[in-house]
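Thread title: Can someone regenerate the structure for this chain?

I was given the following input by a collaborator and told the matching structure tokens would be attached. They weren't. Posting the sequence so someone can regenerate them.
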Amino acid sequence: MKYLIISADDLGLSDSINRGIIKSYEEGVVTALNVLSSGDAFYDAMALLRQTKPKEISAHLALTETSPVSDRSKIPTLLAGNGRFYKGYAGFVSRLVLGVIDAKEIYIELKSQMERLRERDIPVTSISSHQHIHMLPGITEIFIQLAKEYNVPAIRYLHNDRLAYPYNAKKIFKKLILGYFDNKMKRAFDEAGIKYTDNFLGFLDSGNVIEEILIRMLNGLSDGTTELIAHPGFISAEVLERCIFHRTCETDLAALTSRRVKKVIDDNGIKLITFGELAALSKK
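Best answer:
Regenerated them for you:
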């Protein structure tokens, strides 16, 4: 049997991205809403969720691009000069590798982000991270600790992602990165009893999940459980100025609401599920 979770990342990043994600959930095939509680448009996202009334959400924790939730005086090593997190992944990782960032501050901030979600009374059934920072040594363990504290059964596990045509050097490099972190993450999750999907899709094609690529992914879907991530949204001046990675968000949105995509899911006997259902499946 083929079970598929389709995740829309970055709910809370901007108003226009929020609207696109909700559209992909209400009119498309998205089953998991990954909420960025440190995003500038978090409260707009919460207003949309009150209207949509999902049974569950996923926590999308961040230490880059967004703004801190906790008291800035408690997390000085995480912040750039403007009081926000470092915009780029490279800036954060370089500081982490050099030992500039205090791991205690990472825990303080991510716990604050989890608290902001818990206050909304919508069950959180999985945890992932903005720009996949939870793959990094030392941070993986903090995510596991938070999952235990907040009784969240699953954490995103990026593994077994398949190269999809067209191929390029960037995709191959990202595939090598996944391979480097794979075994260590699996061992840590297994030892902690964390649930995760059997397979993962969308990292190698991140920012480019157009209809044709999505259809190829679905036609080649493996048996078992899979998480597929995408970044739908609507283009706006804010996105083009501040969230440049999402400049192709409308093509992701078009793919996720496509009639052809829905037909391929039906034709392949793919059952769309949520992370809450994944936890139940894991118990069988």
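The CA atoms of residues 56 and 74 lie 30 Å apart.
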